[in-house]
Amino acid sequence: SSDTALVNLLVLSFSNAGMKEKNSATTASTLGRILATCSKQAKDYGSCVASIVHEIEKDLCLKQFLALKSCMQHTVKIMSPRPSSSQTSVGSGALSHAYIQHPSLRCNVPESRGLFYDDANRLLICVTSSQVFSWETATFNPDVSPSVDSIPEGPILSVRFSLDKKVIAVQRSDCEIQFFHRETKQTLTHKCRAGSESLLGFFWSDSPLCDLAVVKTSGMDLFACDSAMNLRLVETKKVNVNWYIYTHESRLVLLASGLQCKTITGFQLSTAGVVRLPKFEMTLASTESNSKPIISAGDVHLVTVYGRIYCVQVDMEAMLLHTYRFYRDAVVQQGSLPIYSSKLSVSVVDNLLLVHQIDAKVVIIYDLFVDSRAPVSAPLPLLWRGYQGSDTSPQAASKENESPESSTSSENIVMYEDAWTFLVPDLILDQTNKVLWRVHLDLEASWLAISASSSDRTSLLEFLQRRKLEANKAKQLCLGIARALILERRPATQVTQAIDVLVTAYSYSVKAGIYKELKNGKTTATIPTNDGASPDNERGRASGSSLDEEEEEVEMNLPSGPADEQQESQLSSPAISPDELYKFVFASVEEMMVEESDYLVAIITEFLRSISAEKLKVDLNIYVMTIRLLARSKRFAELSLFTANKIIEPSKEVALQLLESGGQDPRVRKLGLDMLRQLSLHHEYISSLVQDGYYLEALRYAQKRKVTSVRSSLFLEAAFASNDMQHLAAILRVLSELIPGFKETSEYYTFHGLLNETSSSVAV
Question: Long-range contacts: 656-660, Cβ < 8 Å, 24+?
Fold first, then answer.
């Protein structure tokens, strides 16, 4: 079974590699792709050099050369896999999308009897015969000293702190729990009926109904606990229990019963009370050699992704990982994922399900949001990474290239050793080295791996827009993909789909309150109004659920933790505003698309359509660019239609660009003048009329609208420059009537004198 799994894993890897080869075959070699992408710039540069090679030029076609250089650098950049600049991977040296990071949280306690993890308080706990050491894992700071509490000597099966951290509860045996008050040193012992039932475990709750839940083979007892540690039985849930699992993140406990432990009863102990979920049967295949397989607690994991609670269950006989989604009044099997190892575990990082194929020592990543059995990318190893920083010294390089099996900071790291315990959502407890690791996702490596196995850039952008932990990096990768699609001259429909993804994601962020539009057109991040809200949640409810809309999901309660950490998580968003799309995509490619302005206009037009559909504010610069591109390709008729049909919205900036572009076509310049007049931009309209030589019309307009902000000398200078003394006399006459006291100004005397000198026959 294990050999078959490894063969299947190799097939999966080679199938992804085959897809990569198929894609690369269409672009030939790296050099061929660069030449294909930058052929226009290369041709322009070559033509320019050839035309002046006999001359001595200082810049030697510098502009064309820089355009070619920029295109080639960009193409190489998007094609070249590169590790993160601040983190160096060690081990196999291969690309990997998941890693553990030095330094770990180390437990250097002599005579340690074991390590435990309290997920409710996020504490790493180390115990000796009479002491309890605890470290905060939320900040994951290895330099912080642990808290130390003394307890009576005795066996320790499990340890958990109360949610207010005032009481330590220690399970001593299968029938006894002891409670120790950290301040008063008071001790309390709770025992179940020996012989008739066994104590399986316990956990603290923030439900208003109870403070403590004790799980036994006969069911679950719910207790209220006061400040004096007096326990009062509130309710008993009678169920035959073989084993249970619980996570404070979901507030959900699953109780397994039956001969094969596949009958599951669930309760959620949330702030809304205790909710009993429908009983359900887990799927379990059978074979001739094992007709009645049994599910163990290690085969079942509770995970929370995109605010949804899932149960993932290993079916080793079928070599499948079954997934179940919890609703308030239903539990629905969502599908099954193939597994390739006889031993596996799971982690959740940034809403992605990481399936650790322990025998094969690789990680396969799934995005449950897309409802697909296909992994995000090919299987890749879990790597260990050294210190963060920019130290590039030979000593540092030597240290970073050590094998993970070697000693590094006194840690003998063996990937996926038997002593590893995977803790939901993203921790690994290494009992051998007495350390706690956190699993990280390398977003850039994931992007490269997905790019290698699929040419679907739209799906890649959707994947990146769902990432929160490295929001800024996700944003930069999305911008790079959008630029590359345009520079590679991908079909306009494909580019449009990509832009639609980015616009829709930003629109949701604004509506959800993650981004708030300001008066200056910029955006800022704000805390969402609903905890755990995300575009993935809303879209998932609309399209991803197979249940009726009235069926509710299990209430999601976020774990308690430092306020700063929760706020930082809520503020993270990779959404890209229209202003950013203009600055970092369209404006950055404009120079390199000089000869293909029609292509760029088609893309921008679809971008404007998408913006309009989402009712978002458009950066005026995008309109200005559109006018510039249309004028450059002499598409003046289309430019008129764009303006008349309000595809290009009227504004001062748009009108001035129409005037500038109208130097080649009087119809376009007239559009600019008409827009200035419609917007009541009197000063700009009058100045433009005078510039065109229509100073009399401008003066009449100023007289009619009673515009006094325009300098009178503007009209007089224009009339004098035309050598039409009758016009000059008329303007002097109108200004004298329009402006009280004008005949006493220096301007009047100056131009009246010039008029008399030039033509004494004209009366004023």
Answer: 656/684, 657/623, 657/624, 657/627, 657/628, 658/627, 659/688
